[in-house]
Amino acid sequence: MNEEHRLRRASLLRAMNPGVLVVPAAPVTLRNNDVEHEYRQDSDFYYLTGFEEPDSVLVLSSSAACQAVVFVRPRDPEREAWDGVRLGVERAGEVLGVDAAYPFGELAERLPALLSDHDRLYYRLGVRRTMDDTLLCAIDGIRARARAGARWPTQIIDPSVLVHEMRVIKSPGELAAMGRAVDATCRAHLAAMRAARPGMWEYELEAVLTAEFLRSGCRRSAYAPIVASGSNATVLHYHANSRRMGQDELVLMDAGCECSYYAADVTRTFPVGGRFTSAQRAAYDVVLAAQLAAIEAVRPGTTLEAIHDVARKVLAEGMITLGLLTGPVDRVLEDKSYMRYFRHRTSHWLGMDVHDVGAYQVGGLPRELSEGMVLTVEPGLYVPEDSDVPEALRGIGVRIEDDVLVKCEGGRVLTSGVPKSPDAIEAACR
Ligand code: GLY
Ligand code: MN
Ligand code: MN
Fold it and tell me: pLDDT for 97-114, tens place per residue?
């Protein structure tokens, strides 16, 4: 993808009004005492460089002969003996395809020269305060030389708008990485469905999922897996995964891995014992109908809002049929009483981040879909255990989530490798 990173930098430079851009790598964060959290590169930085090391900064300049500069960690045999090999300054230019590379320690000293004579600095203020300070000090340093004719950036512009718009439309290379994440995720869900038994703990299913991610070469989950059995499935962001699963219960699994920095995001809900009860199946059928209708609505020119409208209408009708609400459906939608059982949105963008970047609104209106976007379609129905509704439905939580690519002819479901119809699910669980 090295060439692709170079092309991205070139198109970003074209999209910027003349100016200079600074994008830092993600910081290392401490987990406890001197132990670090697993390091993951900042998505924007990786998108523009393909470089995974911390203590790195990318500087892109529209005017200099030297357009792309990186600051990286220098080689250090003592540190490398502990932490592993570093790319180093000497090789960074060639490997990353940039014009110049310097040690990270020289950033403060070299920034004034890199920022001078630019009116615009593209930099996301407020996220990394130490880096903010380094940049503001550099600007202050140039300003101090104003009488000698120095020019400093007088505008600081958030570059994420430009970079994130680029990230919304996925290239063939990005779709290939997503395809690997999706395939591994589908295998993991299928393995977990096959492994599930009454009496197992939720974390045992989590172990099956993450083992399959690793076995597939996808080393990270894209988010903390949710394995929610019984009424835990009605808690939208349940993460404890610590309950023992019982006979005649449903389990909701929302899990996806990350592959080459691209995420999959899949939810399936299935009977722990391999057979839906009639109430569970009735609830499941409602969510499935909503999900299929919403997927059918995916096409260029429509909006996530319109897709959400389709899903919530089918869900609201189903809630009435199930006896959770009293109709008519128009009133249930109007007074939002359906939100007692479906309180989240139907879709979000998917890409390097599970809740991917990119504007949801343009000019105050819902943004239209275009070819190459990837979104999730994930309606759900969650009946709190203490609701005053038919007893057989209490504590049931169902969500069905697929990843969908917008093609000119409509939505292409990327995650069709995991069983979804009740019959296919029961067959997989058997
Ligand atoms: N797994 C997070 C979500 O579905 O949005
Ligand atoms: Mn999702
Ligand atoms: Mn999800």
Answer: 999 999 999 999 999 999
Catalytic residue among 143, 275, 344, 345: 344
How far apart, in whole angstroms, are the C-alpha atoms of residue 203 and residue 196?
Answer: 11
Residue 64 above 80 pLDDT?
Answer: no
Non-local (6+) Cβ contacts of 267 within 8 A are 226, 252, 253, 254, 378, 380, 399, 400, 401
Q: Measured in angstroms, how far is the CA atom of residue 265 from the centroid of ligand 2?
A: 5
- 5 Cα–ligand 3 center, Å: 28
DSSP calls for 7-60: HHHHHHHHHSPS-EEEEEPPPP-EEETTEEPPP---HHHHHHH----SS-EEEE
- Which residue is associated with the tokens 């499941």? 284
The model's pTM: 0.96
Q: With residue 294 as reference, give the H or E element that holds it.
A: helix 278-296
Q: Could you tell me if the CB of 349 is within 6 A of ligand 1?
A: no
CB 253, CB 264: distance < 8 Å: no
At residue 325, the 3 state secondary structure works out as coil
